[in-house]
Amino acid sequence: MDPRHETSAYRVEKLRSAATLTLSTGERVSGCFFLSPASAHAPRPERVGELLNEGDGFFPFEVQGPGSAPRAVLLNREQILTAALTANEIQDTPGYDTATQYLVSIGMANGPRLMGTVRVYSA
Question: Which letter, b or e, does each residue of 36-54 get, where b requires 16 or more Cβ atoms within 10 Å of its Cβ?
Answer without folding.
Answer: eeeeeeeeebbbbebbeee
